[in-house]
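Hey, I'm writing a tutorial for new members on how sequence and structure tokens pair up, and I'd like a real worked example in the thread rather than a made-up one. If someone can provide the structure for the chain below, I'll link this post from the tutorial.
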Amino acid sequence: KKLGLKKTFFLGPKGQPVLAELFTMSEVGMFPSYKEPFGMVFVECFACGCPAIGAKSGGPVEFVKPEQGVLVEEEEDWRSPAGAKRLGSKIAAQVDKALKEDWKSKKGPGCIKFVQDNFSTTAQCSAMLDNMKEWSKK
């Protein structure tokens, strides 16, 4: 079935080095998973300076902010043609906005800093040590 998409690639599973290269060269990541549990792919995308668009549910709701991208409302009926079309329209509108507003250059650098500050090994170890210090006071 022909979708008529431009500048869109469906590549299947890829290893981390290939994903990093793809995210780095991409204008925007798009991850509209239904009921996403955490959303590591958002963190990976942000680490490469690529803003993202996803579905508003699960883990991404906790950390995807307007500075890094946007989350669209999920469609409960996403499996039906009408629901899929509604979801697709919401996502397409955000992709269009991201490209017109040049999110890659405007939000991309902030995405990298966000990951460094919140998800890097240094940030995780610092948070763990802070927690341990706090717990030892009790």
